[in-house]
Design goal:
Number of helices: 3
Radius of gyration: 13 Å
Helix content: over 70%
Length: 54
């Protein structure tokens, strides 16, 4: 089971790193009035919860 956990953790880390790479764009979207701004804010919240400074 530890292999599955490591794989899951690695996928999560990769996803967070990808989000962090575009965090400035996500902030711009989150601050706008577009219908999908809520999604951008949720992704930024995920980064904050993981300890990223965004």
């Amino acid at each position: 089971m530890s292999v599955d956990t490591n794989t899951t953790d690695a996928k999560r880390d990769d996803r967070l790193e990808t989000l962090y790479n575009v965090h400035e764009e996500l902030q711009t979207i989150a601050e706008s009035d577009v219908p999908y701004a809520e999604y951008a804010e949720n992704w930024l919240a995920s980064l904050r919860e993981a300890g990223y400074d965004v």
